[in-house]
Hints:
Elements: E1 3-6, H1 12-16, H2 26-39, H3 41-51, H4 63-72, H5 75-93, E2 100-102, E3 108-116, E4 119-123, H6 132-145, E5 149-154, H7 164-173, E6 177-180, H8 183-192, E7 202-204, H9 209-218, E8 223-224, E9 232-237, H10 243-254, E10 261-266, H11 269-283, H12 289-299, E11 301-304, H13 308-318, E12 322-326, H14 331-334, E13 342-345, H15 351-356, E14 382-390, H16 392-408, H17 412-419
Parallel strand pairs: 1-11, 4-5, 4-7, 5-6, 7-8, 9-10, 9-12, 10-11, 12-13
Antiparallel strand pairs: 2-3, 3-14
Helix pairs in contact: 2-3, 2-8, 2-9, 3-8, 4-7, 5-6, 5-7, 6-7, 8-9, 10-11, 16-17
Amino acid sequence: MIRIYEFSQVDPAEIFQRETPISRVEEPVAAILADVKRRGDEAVLDYTRRFDRCDISSLAVTAEEIDEAFSQVEPEFLEVLERAAANIREFHTAQVRQSLVLTPRSGVVLGQRITPIERVGLYVPGGTAAYPSTVLMDAIPAKIAGCEKIVMATPPGADGKINPAILAAAKIAGVTDIFKMGGAQAVAALAYGTESVPKVDKIVGPGNAFVAEAKKQVFGMVAIDMIAGPSEILVLADGKSDARVVAADMLSQAEHDRNATAVLVTESMDLAKAVQAELEAQLEALPRRDIARASVDSNGMIIVAENLMQGIEIANELAPEHLELLVDDPFAYLDSIRNAGSVFLGRSCPEALGDYFAGPNHTLPTSGTARFSSPLGVDDFVKKSQFLYYTPNALNAVAEDVARFARKEGLEAHARSAVIRSGQLTVDS
Length: 429
């Protein structure tokens, strides 16, 4: 059963400490990466047979397979995918940045160019689980950013096929290349390139411990989005909140995996006890109740604060992936929230709305990293470069300042490069 704490009577460290599951996969992942780098497609196919129990001869998904997938997905769900994709496009289009040019002084031009990353890799979990929502959330911002190649990797099922909903979502989102591969071997193929898999410049998307470790190890050769931890939700609810709603929202994250965290913060002990009981009742109705039960019992908690503002401070300390504000006037509290991946405002805004349909991205910082990182967006698929232009007169006006600064750092060649153009220094001096 989930624990109830009175905040005034508990050590904050007991609440705020996150215990990340220890995963000792560094060495096997390093071996897989090296093998794929050396043997390419052959290694990826071997690992697919070994780990996915799937014997395939080619990694690439064909156009015929995509067309077949479309025919297998019920029309009603295709319509939902299209509507969700439209919402995601609308939100992320508003994120697009413009290049800038400044002329601060006569003879000086300064600027910043925004250009898309040319090739990006999307990792999408597959096999027994299918997450077409992840395809939309990862691929659409990349498409809006202008990425030339959007390469998706997802593990096949035992029959050698990709879940049809995944392929349908990929086509709707504008994915250019799809490959049947998962795990560390997929990350390796994307990072190094193989005979059939193009090398990418950045890899995004969630995965298991092997995928996360592989992303860590290839970082620097390619960029990555983040190392995603277990799912999290913090519900901040006043005493007027419906215990059934609160419990349902907490369980929406608890059912992800045993290490997920679901937290309620409220100023009402009555609500705390009601939610505690409601969780027990609703757990029994869940197909994934064993997973949700393990999450709630091990990582879940209910915190009774003195008031809602103290609840906000607790939330800021926890920096949750998802934060729900179940209060009458949620906008009154929004400016006080400093650390949260995505904030769900009001009593009619469940976290699931953000997971699938509303438009904001569902790839979010976890494990308290919302203190310093952001949701996935268009910015993750572009890069910035600067440019500078000075006329001879503009350079002459500042050359001595540049030289003095350089010499202060002991870098005479820097200094000379500034003044030699003005005739203040000859190559012999």
